[in-house]
Amino acid sequence: MALMPVAEAYAAILKDVKALPEETAALTDAFHRTLSRDIAALRTQPPAAMSAMDGYAVHAADAVPGARLKVIGEVAAGRPFNETVHAGQAARIFTGGVMPDGADTVVIQEDATRDGDFVIVNAAIAAGRNVRAAGIDFREGDMLLPRGTLLSDRSVALAAGMNHPRLPVHRRPRVAILATGDELVAPGATPGPGQIISSNVFALTALVRSEGAEPIDLGVARDTLEATSSSIRRARDLGVDVLVTTGGASVGDHDYVQEALRAEGVDIAFWKIALRPGKPMMHGRLKSMRVLGLPGNPVSSYICAFVFLVPLIRALSGRTQIDHVAERAVLGHDLPANDKRQDYLRARAAPGPDGLPVASSVGAQDSSLVANLAAANVLIVRPPFAPAAPAGSPCTILRLPR
């Protein structure tokens, strides 16, 4: 079977993907969810002119050095003063207090001296200073959170200020993760002869969660057809949106993932792609469940998940920004010519003297080197058959999650 180009594999994985159905989430559960509708403000903020400082609310004409003003009342946040401030008068006011009628300026307390029932202005204050005008933040009806927004901590705060206790969001994608291999043991165990510590599931779980999806750990399937098939059936019965397998995707005598997927009715769209690292990757579907069969080597597994699984989760979540954002950079060292596979080189990017990042390889690019993967903060993307490139040449990078 010929190697499928990365762009074709990407298009196949995202073909006909639709955002998951809408549900309503309380603000406490809205973080990292995706809005399914435009959200407009239900109120004006602030609803009235308010003081931005502690001080005295006065007429601008009275805010001159030496002015002696009669203090007629006090205004605190949540306790408006219902009388009018006339010329020659002032109202003691605190931050967040509603400006009383007649006052349009606040003399901060550092620029005033209190003398019994009077206050003396010590500095000239321009009209409107230290006052937050009504609606300076937003007004009722302003559409501030568009459909497709991934809700950050700041946007959740904005929704609360807009007076929305609940928000319409897309259901979180449910992503089942299945590791395969007799050689895998859990962290903390003592590996026996030929065994290794399982790390892929932890990286994939963190990546899935960071994109706002719900990870489901299916454990480790041993290298038998029945064990692998049983885990696939479990994912199907759980009704997950995506099944991710890691390991067993090659053609060895103990690689059962492809055989098990086909036996359970998964329509395999492709197997083997022109990507380094990650050539033995599969994609298929079983009704509404999408399947990604990732390689077992930890770097290959992670890179394939980053390149393909992350955009799939974003599409299912209803996000408007699905693709990774490619950035321009320059190489920090020479690179040889590339072959027929698209390369994703683990690298570190640092600010360069001309404003562009300088990207330098973290070292050996073997697909088993987790330490080098952890040291990287970007991937240098090199297309198939890219010619040799000296240090200082332009390149394209993708930022890895922080």
Structural class: alpha/beta
- Beta-strand segment tally: 26
What separation lies between the terminal Cα atoms? Answer: 37 Å
Give the count of structural domains: 4
Task: Describe the protein's architecture and organization.
The protein has 402 residues and is of the alpha/beta class. It is built from 7 helices and 26 strands. The protein has 4 domains: 161 residues, MoaB/Mog-like domain (Molybdenum Cofactor Biosythetic Enzyme, Chain A); 58 residues, Alpha-Beta Complex (Molybdopterin biosynthesis moea protein, domain 2), CATH 3.90.105; 83 residues, Beta Complex (Molybdopterin biosynthesis moeA protein, domain 3), CATH 2.170.190.11; 74 residues, MoeA, C-terminal, domain IV (Beta-clip). 19% of the residues lie in helices and 30% in strands. A 6-stranded mixed beta sheet has the order 7-4-6-5-9-8, with no helix packed on it. Strand 20 and strand 21 form a beta hairpin. Helix 3 packs parallel to helix 6. The longest helix is centred in the C-terminal third of the chain and has 20 residues. The chain is elongated, with a radius of gyration of 30 Å. The protein starts with 5 loop residues before the first helix and ends with a strand. The mean pLDDT is 95.
